[in-house]
User: What shape does this take?
Amino acid sequence: MGELEVVMRADGGPGIGLGHLRRCVALAEALRGRGAAVTFVVPDHPVLVATVEHAGFAARTVEPEEAATLAVTRVIARQLGAAAVVLDGYDIREDALRPALAPLTVVIDDLADRELPVDVVVNGNLYAPRLVYRVAPHTLVLAGSRYAILLPEFADSPERPVRSRVENVLITLGGGDESGLTPALLGAVARAVPQAAIDAVLGPMAPPGLDGATAAAAARARVHRAPASLRTLMLQADLAVTGGGQTLYELAAMGVPAVTIELARNQRLNIEGLAALGGTVPAGRASAPDLASRVGGLVAQLDGDPARRQAMARAGRGALDGRGAGRVADVLVAKVTAARSVTS
Assistant: This one.
């Protein structure tokens, strides 16, 4: 088989974050390991382009509104002779999908809120098997945490000993923190576990002024702006405070118990699904006026309950093994190979 050309159209940016793009990069890395060449199509934002290029992939830029028509993505796929196009974004309209973008059209989707006239649908969320997708008879739906698309660094993480007290807390709210929650959360966590070191991560799209405010919230905290990887910080953490997006699943795969904040409505099912398994403790919505005190109270409870922290870590690792990207990549390569053998 000749080199497999794949185009990935991922949304992201202020108000959207980096979750769609990060899981597409994870899938792209898995595909690259199987001999594919991947080109990204992303909204014209420097953080998105830098994320793609840092991972070693080419990036083409479009206006965000292009998701409604996919006109530019379609042209790029045709120019490259793409065998597959992978789409990840909530603004992609179903009528833009009706003319096939490539021999294999794939959508990564969390919501099942529209008709998806494509060849493969991927939903790696814990709740995905409960959703009913409106798809064609030939469409393959890959649903459930076996297909959770995470970077390979989060796969098969070793079980770590649980300390009697929390000695290190990680606070991370994803690619941005437009509401400026991090300083208040940091202050509450510092008061709840005065013995613990705290790592507070600000994403690349967090407001510039947030660094100083975060550092001032707790003198002993270490503030990290857009680290290349969270894995090292996760390995050090006994407990995390996070949003309910992609990072929550990464923490679960790493066996890090987490207090989780619903930063956006589309995160609710993620949080509820992992909480039902005992893998996280929900703190409520980001808009709650008492959020910081609630987070501080939950952190204090978990500090004094190592048995629960251990159970949470095991539940998270049991739910997410971090190998979903490879499983999805295997399916896509197999489908392209099969199609080529029929036409050759």
